[in-house]
């Protein structure tokens, strides 16, 4: 791999500001980041390794660049921005790392057209609104079972381990066609993908497991012509016809697993914390559950879990008064755009009665999240259950005693002690 190069001089005489900015609160981006958003739509920032990149903070500018074919998402480009050295060793964040071998950066969010177009065309029929809607009853049952268990065991409870973590994992397992009795093994390895010290081993163990699972599904499909879940459908329609290799199917599965679990888990956990901490917000939803679909958009904007996506300019691109040069690293600042004032009338407040439209929680353009219909459905069902079945939900510990961390991929609560 060629060495990274500094392709553009700093945008002005001042030293570029350091990025990223750490959060002081787990469910809100740094106030310093919001100040950057107010300074203009494009800012030169300096990363941990001394290199610079363009941070796009303007809403319209971010939207345009996400849809621009002159911008690449390939993580094997030598100037692809990396936010922390640890990201180079985490399989679960390969879309932000400069690695060429293995993993799943070579599918979906880590590739450009025409390869991205081919891959998305294979998966898209399984993620339509109508197809995802057929899973509503199954998701409702998963959510209800976990609420039932919390009610039986009584307060206090850890909402992360009792609800926010297992529900998305079980939904993804059911959607993929992973046997229910094997979900514990699947979940353990999936969590470890985000631990730099165990990520490589977890990647290998998950790959071995999925290889065995898919081999078994292939055999059953050959015997009966049918098998269950998304894996079964892809085996029937694409693997058996020669249009999809088993190795690529495994990469698809890993990408869907990562994208579909940790973000949903933390949207539930951090979203609940924000609703309970911001005055009147949880109570408003408990009093009027019909607000939940719009409130979910406001929660995702306010949390801004994924604060940025990394890109590289393939050619010179004029943005306002600046020119992003070919080879420059770009950070599309979702959080900065969410708090810049162009998206909502109340950027610094959480208000479930005033939802935004067009937020970047599911990205935009060709890399708009393929699984957004599945994510929205399970999140709407999960929050509806929390506010209707646990209307008296409250924190069981002061917020400053709730453990959390942020590895610069997204913030995560380790526990969320609650009562009701």
UniProtKB/TrEMBL annotation:
Task: Check the record and name the InterPro entries matching this protein.
Answer: Cyt_P450, Cyt_P450_B, Cyt_P450_CS, Cyt_P450_sf
Family matches, as SUPFAM superfamilies: Cytochrome P450
The record's Pfam families line, in alphabetical order, gives: p450
Q: Locate the region Disordered.
A: 1-31
EC assignment: the record states 1.14.15.11
Q: CDD domains from the entry? A: CYP105-like
Enzyme group, top EC level? Answer: oxidoreductase
Q: Which UniProt keywords apply?
A: Heme, Iron, Metal-binding, Monooxygenase, Oxidoreductase
Q: Name one GO molecular function term.
A: iron ion binding
Family label: Belongs to the cytochrome P450 family.
Please identify the protein, giving its name as recorded: Cytochrome P450
**Source organism:** Actinoalloteichus fjordicus
Q: What is the lineage of its organism?
A: Bacteria, Bacillati, Actinomycetota, Actinomycetes, Pseudonocardiales
């Amino acid at each position: 791999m060629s060495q990274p190069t500094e392709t553009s001089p700093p945008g002005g005489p001042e030293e570029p500001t350091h990025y990223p900015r750490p959060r002081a609160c787990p469910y809100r981006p740094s106030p310093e980041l919001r100040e950057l958003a107010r300074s203009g739509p494009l800012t030169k920032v300096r990363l941990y390794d001394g290199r610079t990149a363009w941070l796009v903070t303007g809403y319209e500018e971010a939207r345009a660049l996400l849809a621009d074919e002159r911008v690449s998402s390939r993580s094997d480009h030598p100037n692809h921005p990396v936010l922390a050295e640890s990201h180079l060793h985490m399989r679960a964040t390969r879309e932000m790392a400069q690695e060429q071998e293995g993993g799943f950066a070579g599918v979906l969010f880590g590739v450009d057209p025409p390869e991205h177009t081919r891959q998305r065309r294979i998966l898209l029929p399984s993620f339509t609104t109508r197809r995802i809607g057929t899973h509503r009853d199954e998701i409702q049952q998963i959510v209800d079972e976990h609420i039932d268990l919390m009610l039986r065991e009584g307060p206090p409870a850890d909402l992360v381990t009792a609800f926010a973590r297992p529900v998305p994992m079980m939904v993804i397992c059911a959607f993929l066609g992973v046997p229910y009795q094997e979900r514990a093994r699947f979940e353990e390895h999936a969590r470890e993908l985000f631990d730099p010290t165990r990520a490589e081993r977890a990647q290998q163990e998950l790959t071995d497991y999925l290889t065995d699972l898919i081999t078994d599904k292939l055999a059953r499909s050959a015997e009966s012509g049918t098998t269950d879940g998304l894996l079964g459908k892809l085996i029937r329609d694409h693997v058996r016809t020669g249009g999809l290799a088993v190795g690529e199917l495994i990469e698809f599965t890993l990408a869907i697993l990562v994208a579909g679990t940790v973000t949903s888990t933390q949207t539930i956990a951090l979203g609940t914390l924000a609703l309970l901490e911001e005055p009147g917000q949880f109570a408003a939803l408990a009093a009027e559950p019909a607000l939940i679909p719009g409130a979910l958009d406001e929660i995702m904007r306010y949390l801004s879990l994924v604060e940025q996506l990394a890109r590289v300019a393939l050619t010179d691109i004029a943005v306002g008064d600046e020119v992003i040069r070919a080879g420059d690293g770009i950070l599309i600042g979702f959080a900065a755009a969410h708090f810049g004032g162009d998206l909502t009338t109340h950027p610094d407040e959480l208000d479930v009665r005033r939802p935004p439209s067009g937020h970047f929680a599911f990205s935009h353009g060709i890399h708009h999240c393929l699984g957004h219909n599945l994510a929205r459905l399970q999140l709407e069902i999960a929050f509806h259950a929390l506010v209707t079945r646990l209307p008296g939900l409250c924190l069981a510990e002061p917020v400053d005693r709730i453990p959390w961390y942020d590895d610069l991929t997204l913030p995560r609560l380790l526990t969320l002690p609650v009562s009701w």
